[in-house]
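Write out a record, fold above all:
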Amino acid sequence: MVLAAMAVTVIATAGCTLPAFAPEDDSAAPGTSAGSAPPAVPGTQAQWTPCPEVPQKLVGQGASGMAYDCASVAVPQDWNAPQGGKTYTVAMIRVRSEDQTDRVGSLLINPGGPGGSGIELAIYLSYGQTLGGLPTEITNKFDIIGFDPRGVGRSSPVKCISNADQDASFAMEPDPASEEAFQQAVALNQRIGNECGRKYGDQLTNFSTEQAAHDMDAIRTAVGDQKTTYLGFSYGTLLGATYAQLFPDKVRALVLDGAVDPKLDTIASSETQAKGFERAFTNFTTWCKANATRCPISADPRKAVTDALAKAQASPLKGTDGREATSGWVFLSVISSLYTETGWVRLARAIDDLQGGNPEGVFDLADEYADRKPDGSYSNLFDANYTVNCADSAETLTIDRIRQLQSDWRKKYPLFGASMAVGMMPCVFWPAKRDPYPTGTANGAPPIVVVGTTGDPATPYENTAHLAGMLGTGHVLTWEGEGHTAYPSTSCIVTAVDRYLIDLQVPQQGLRCPAR
C-alpha cells in the first residue's frame, strides 16, 4: 500500500484537487447510523462514537496505534438566515494516536476539489510518513479531524449527474473542434444543469465556499478548540483563506498547500491551469527523454501522446469492460498522471501499451481521475465540484465566448488549452444564484503559511505569492519539485510545516526546499 500515490484529480471547471476519495455509500454519514450520537448543533461539542469500520471498509484495516471516532454537526442550510430550521449534516472523523502526548489540539484537514472527502484523506494520512501519511510528530500532538464539506461524500451529498452522463462527459473529445461535436458538448452540459436544478433548485446556492467556511467554525466548536489549526490542499487553500477572512480571530495556524488565487476570475483561472499543465507536460517529456529505461516512449514523448489522442479519436480500442478508449479517456489519463512524478512512469507505460493494443493502463489512470468504480458507478465528486464551483463563480460566461477561447487557447497551449476552455461550460447552464467568496485581507489573523510547488500543474506556483499577498499575513514556503502540492513530500518541507503547526514557528522568509 503506497499512500503517496493516492488517486488525484483536477477539475477543469476552475477547481482543482489533490486527493479525492469518494465514499462507498453516498447516503450514510459515519457516526449517524442507528444507535450512534445525534449531530451536534453549532455552539455545542460533538459526541464521538468509535467507528473502526470506516477505515476497514476503505482500506481493509485501520492504522496500527490509531483510534477512529466519528461524529457530525448539524449546520444551517443558509448561514445568512440561520434561524430557518433546515440543516445539513457535516460528517467528521477523528484520528487519535495512542502515543499522543502534550496534545496541542485538533488539526482540521481538507483535500481539495471541491468535492474531495476529508474523512477519507484523514484515514489515508493516519498510516504514517513512510506510506505517504502524516509525520508522527504531528499525530503525536494533534487529533486529526477530517470532514466532508457540505454537499460532499457523507455530508448531505449532492448527487444529480447520472453515471451515463459522467461516462459521456469523460469520453467526449477534449477539443470538440467541429460544430457538431461542440454542440454535443453544449447539449450534455445543459442536460446536467437542468437535472441538478430540477433536483435541488434554490438549494444549489447554499453549497458555496463561504457557507462551508462557516461550517468550519461550527466544527471548531464541536471539537472543543478555542482556535482553528488547519491544513488545506488545493481548493482547500481557498476554503482556508475564506475562513481566515471571516474568522481571523479564531485562527491559530493555517497551512495552505497548492494555492488557489481567489482574485482570478473563471477565465483567468482556467488559462493559468492550461499554462500549468503545459509546463508540467513539458517537464514530463524532459524527464522521459533522460530516462529511456523507465520511459518506453522516450524517443518523442509529446508526439507519442498526441498521436495516441488522434488514433483514439479515429479508431478507439475497446477495454475489457466494453468501454471504448476514446480521446477523452486518453486525455484524462494524461491529466491524471501529471499530479505526481510516479504518474509519469505510469503514463509512459500506458501510452506504450495503448500503442500495442492494450488500453487498460489508460483506463486505470482515467478512472482514478474520475473516481469511477469498477461497476461503472461514480461517487459524487464531480456533482459536488460543479455545484460548489458554479455557486462560487461571480461572472456569467456565454457559449460564444467559450468557443472563441477554445480557438485562442488551442494555439497558445496546444495540448491543454482548448480542453480547459471547454471545461468552463457547466456553469453557463447552472440554474442557481451565485454566492462568490470574499477576496480581501485576513485582518487580525496570525501568520499563515502558503506552500507552493514550482512544477505544480493544477495550482501553478505563481498563485502562491498572490494568495499570501491577498491575505496580508501570508508567508511563502517553496518546494522546487514536481506534482501537485508539497507536504509531506520532503524532509525540508516537513520540518518547516511541522515546526509551524506545533510551535507556531513561521518558516524563514524566502525558504526554498530542493526537489529531493
Summary: The radius of gyration is 22 Å.
